[in-house]
Specification:
Radius of gyration of chain B: 13 Å
Number of strands of chain B: 11
Oligomer: heterodimer
Number of strands of chain A: 11
Number of helices of chain A: 0
Largest sheet of chain A: 6 strands, mixed
Shape of chain A: globular
Strand content of chain B: over 45%
Helix content of chain A: under 10%
Radius of gyration of chain A: 13 Å
Helix content of chain B: under 10%
Strand content of chain A: over 45%
Structural class of chain A: mainly beta
Largest interface: A-B, 29 and 24 residues
Largest sheet of chain B: 7 strands, mixed
Distance between the termini of chain B: 34 Å
Order of helices and strands of chain B: EEEEEEEEEEE
């Protein structure tokens, strides 16, 4: 069953602006991951945050996790045209599965 | 070097046919997966093999049969194809099983059933 749900479904921003997207999930998790999918391609892993972590950075990416609210956010700073893609959160519990949401489609306008 | 490769990239076929999709990974991983992504981009796990043993078998029709001849390969055979099988199928691999591992995805196979 679907675990993560991303919000918004779509986001359009100007190059150089920041993009923020959120993920909510239903059950307790061990970890939460974010993936990027460029059009017509497979998913690429961006970052993993463990349930005992609250914030994590990787380059221009910042991920937060609030387990009390069962939510996570992904912030992309100083966006570039190459950031145009769909972004998915994926949660894993104790059932050996990653459960993905339907993603947020981000369009970065030049 | 391609880490996770799938063939074919596109597959167009008639209803009722049988088809296979092949997947190979050269990362030395011990776990492989098949996912189905529908037209709304929702990605759903279908199967997972760890060291050639089936560990995840979601509720998919038994027309779908995975086969893992070795740790580097996981193929998907689909019998009696139906219109609803049209989707993009992704193979992925990881070292170890969830939780806590990064998965590497192939480029996808777009299946269109006419």
């Amino acid at each position: 069953s679907q675990q993560g749900e991303e919000d918004p479904q779509a986001l359009s921003i100007q190059e150089g602006e920041n993009a923020t997207m959120n993920c909510s999930y239903k059950t307790s998790i061990n970890n939460l991951q974010w993936y990027r999918q460029n059009s017509g391609r497979g998913l690429v892993h961006l970052i993993l945050i463990r349930s005992n972590e609250r914030e994590k950075h990787s380059g221009r990416l910042r991920v937060t996790l609030d387990t009390s609210k069962k939510s996570s956010s992904l912030l992309i700073t100083a966006s570039r045209a190459a950031d145009t893609a769909s972004y998915f959160c994926a949660t894993d519990a104790d059932d050996y599965k990653l459960s993905f949401g339907a993603g947020t489609t981000v369009t970065v306008r030049a | 070097d391609t880490a996770v490769s799938q063939t074919p990239k596109y597959l167009v076929t008639q209803m009722g046919n049988d088809k296979s999709i092949k997947c190979e990974q050269n990362l030395g991983h011990d776990t492989m997966y098949w996912y189905k992504q529908d037209s709304k981009k929702f990605l759903k796990i279908m199967f997972s093999y760890n060291n050639k043993e089936l560990i995840i078998n979601e509720t998919v029709p038994n027309r779908f049969s995975p086969k893992s001849p070795d740790k580097a390969h996981l193929n998907l055979h689909i019998n009696s194809l139906e219109l609803g099988d049209s989707a993009v199928y992704f193979c992925a691999s990881s070292q170890g099983i969830p939780p806590g591992n990064e998965q590497f995805f192939g480029p996808g196979t777009r299946l269109t059933v006419l």
